[in-house]
């Protein structure tokens, strides 16, 4: 597959993926642009792979998880945590939109690697093996990252339902 | 709960920017040399590396009586290395310090194939500093007298310690990503303004290339801010991570600095990116590289000064 064709087919999906893991569309754009420019330089090799998309996704993920974006990620997380603090208690429990937004805020404050694993599972529908490949870790690590993320989200979810129950 | 997670992530992904914007940027970038990309955010290490060399020496001066009869100084070539948390080289500067303390610095892109077995600069220091200095000598045709390496992550603290660095912008500019905005003209950056300034790439006419220029301008200006009064604090900020070769006598080296340090910066032209053994990098023409370095070091090259984008 040629580079241009790859970009045409996958750019939108890649932007969606990057936005979901970074929770910041501008940072996501920055990362995707940089990664694609780098990928273009070595497309001869990437294009010949079985799964170029998986490889490029790995580049995007690595870039985000690298120290380069540590500060940005922290700032985004702080911002989102602030938003999350205000949002849920005001919401009507019957409001599906509010419920989704509350979950979104909770995902945004997960540790970066856990969120990446979660997005790979629930947005990209990747298997444990594929996630391991993208994150560059063992499958057992993927499972522990995912289960920790789900545990955190579940705890919050229970706490939230309980709070809303009292109010309603 | 899984459905809820799925919906939440999809909603987050829905926020993505329009892919047409990204496509347009990619097309623009195609016509540029990819050098700026390689430098990326990391080039700001360069300034920290410069500080690593200059600071310990300035500090020594404050602790000893002024050297009444300073020995005659010879020009020295020092390799300034900025490393990431894993000791990979992210920024590499070949610096010639003249007898009067003024310096000429040439940025060497870290992805140049330069090792004896065709490795790129980036991994050589971690393997063995001597491999890196040998590779630089081989490429530039100039001798490396000493090296100093500093961890890039120390840079934030260093920048704060000098209490501000003056830069000049040709135009007022806003960074859509960080929300930082800078007016046109001369201004003094400090603390939290420094990183957005050094990192901005979007909204600039030449994108990454402008970012490299900004970083070089910052470096030149930063070096001028190092004084006896702030040297101690700067030294403390970087002392944990600075490494330099055993054969160096910083006290002797320091005698040359009699005032603010003048720095001229330039970047080694590296041509188009190439792929070797599946690795992306640069293979500048050896003869041209040597010629460029010689011209810069003899003061014939054009210095990159003035306001940046």
UniProtKB/TrEMBL annotation, chain A:
<dbReference type="InterPro" id="IPR039425">
    <property type="entry name" value="RNA_pol_sigma-70-like"/>
</dbReference>
<keyword id="KW-0805">Transcription regulation</keyword>
<dbReference type="InterPro" id="IPR014284">
    <property type="entry name" value="RNA_pol_sigma-70_dom"/>
</dbReference>
<keyword id="KW-0238">DNA-binding</keyword>
<dbReference type="InterPro" id="IPR013325">
    <property type="entry name" value="RNA_pol_sigma_r2"/>
</dbReference>
<comment type="similarity">
    <text>Belongs to the sigma-70 factor family. ECF subfamily.</text>
</comment>
<keyword id="KW-0731">Sigma factor</keyword>
<dbReference type="Pfam" id="PF08281">
    <property type="entry name" value="Sigma70_r4_2"/>
</dbReference>
<dbReference type="InterPro" id="IPR013324">
    <property type="entry name" value="RNA_pol_sigma_r3/r4-like"/>
</dbReference>
<protein>
    <submittedName>
        <fullName>RNA polymerase sigma24 factor</fullName>
    </submittedName>
</protein>
<feature type="domain" description="RNA polymerase sigma factor 70 region 4 type 2">
    <location>
        <begin position="101"/>
        <end position="153"/>
    </location>
</feature>
<keyword id="KW-0804">Transcription</keyword>
<dbReference type="InterPro" id="IPR036388">
    <property type="entry name" value="WH-like_DNA-bd_sf"/>
</dbReference>
<dbReference type="InterPro" id="IPR013249">
    <property type="entry name" value="RNA_pol_sigma70_r4_t2"/>
</dbReference>
TrEMBL record, chain B:
<feature type="domain" description="Cell envelope-related transcriptional attenuator">
    <location>
        <begin position="89"/>
        <end position="227"/>
    </location>
</feature>
<keyword id="KW-1133">Transmembrane helix</keyword>
<dbReference type="InterPro" id="IPR050922">
    <property type="entry name" value="LytR/CpsA/Psr_CW_biosynth"/>
</dbReference>
<dbReference type="Pfam" id="PF03816">
    <property type="entry name" value="LytR_cpsA_psr"/>
</dbReference>
<protein>
    <recommendedName>
        <fullName>Cell envelope-related transcriptional attenuator domain-containing protein</fullName>
    </recommendedName>
</protein>
<feature type="transmembrane region" description="Helical">
    <location>
        <begin position="35"/>
        <end position="55"/>
    </location>
</feature>
<comment type="similarity">
    <text>Belongs to the LytR/CpsA/Psr (LCP) family.</text>
</comment>
<keyword id="KW-0812">Transmembrane</keyword>
<dbReference type="InterPro" id="IPR004474">
    <property type="entry name" value="LytR_CpsA_psr"/>
</dbReference>
<keyword id="KW-0472">Membrane</keyword>
């Amino acid at each position: 597959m040629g580079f241009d064709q790859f970009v045409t087919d996958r750019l939108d999906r890649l932007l969606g993926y990057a936005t979901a893991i970074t929770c910041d569309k501008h940072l996501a754009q920055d990362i995707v642009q940089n990664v694609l420019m780098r990928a273009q330089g070595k497309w001869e090799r990437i294009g010949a792979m079985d799964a170029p998309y998986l490889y490029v996704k790995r580049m995007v993920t690595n870039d985000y998880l690298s120290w380069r974006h540590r500060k940005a990620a922290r700032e985004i997380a702080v911002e989102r945590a602030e938003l999350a603090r205000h949002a849920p208690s005001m919401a009507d429990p019957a409001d599906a939109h509010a419920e989704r937004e509350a979950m979104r805020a909770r995902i945004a404050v997960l540790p970066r690697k856990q969120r990446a694993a979660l997005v790979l599972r629930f947005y990209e529908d990747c298997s444990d093996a594929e996630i391991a490949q993208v994150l560059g870790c063992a499958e057992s690590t993927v499972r522990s990252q995912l289960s920790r993320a789900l545990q955190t989200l579940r705890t919050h979810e229970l706490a939230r339902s309980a709070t809303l129950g009292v109010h309603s | 709960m899984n459905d809820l997670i799925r919906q939440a992530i999809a909603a987050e992904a829905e926020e993505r920017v329009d892919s047409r914007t990204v496509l347009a940027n990619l097309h623009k970038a195609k016509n540029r040399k990819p050098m700026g990309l390689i430098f990326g955010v990391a080039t700001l290490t360069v300034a920290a590396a410069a500080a690593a060399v200059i600071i310990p020496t300035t500090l020594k001066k404050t602790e000893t009586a002024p050297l009444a009869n300073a020995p005659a100084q010879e020009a020295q070539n020092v390799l300034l290395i900025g490393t990431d948390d894993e000791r990979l080289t992210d920024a590499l500067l070949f610096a010639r310090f003249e007898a009067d303390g003024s310096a000429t610095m040439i940025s060497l892109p870290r992805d140049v194939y330069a090792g004896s077995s065709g490795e790129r600069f980036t991994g050589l220091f971690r393997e063995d500093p001597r491999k890196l200095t040998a590779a630089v000598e081989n490429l530039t045709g100039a001798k490396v007298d000493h090296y100093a390496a500093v961890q890039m992550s120390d840079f934030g603290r260093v920048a704060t310690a000098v209490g501000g660095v003056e830069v000049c912008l040709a135009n007022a500019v806003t960074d859509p990503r960080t929300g930082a905005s800078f007016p046109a003209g001369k201004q003094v950056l400090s603390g939290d303004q420094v990183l957005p300034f050094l990192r901005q790439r979007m909204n600039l006419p030449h994108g990454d290339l402008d970012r490299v220029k900004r970083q070089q301008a910052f470096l030149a200006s930063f070096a001028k801010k190092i004084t006896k009064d702030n040297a101690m604090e700067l030294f403390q900020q970087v002392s944990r991570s600075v490494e330099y070769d055993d054969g160096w006598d910083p006290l002797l080296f320091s005698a040359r600095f009699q005032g603010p340090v003048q720095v001229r910066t330039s970047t080694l032209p590296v041509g188009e990116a190439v792929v070797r053994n599946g690795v992306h990098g640069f293979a500048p023409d050896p003869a041209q590289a040597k010629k460029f370095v010689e011209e810069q070091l003899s003061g014939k090259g054009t210095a990159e000064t003035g306001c940046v984008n």
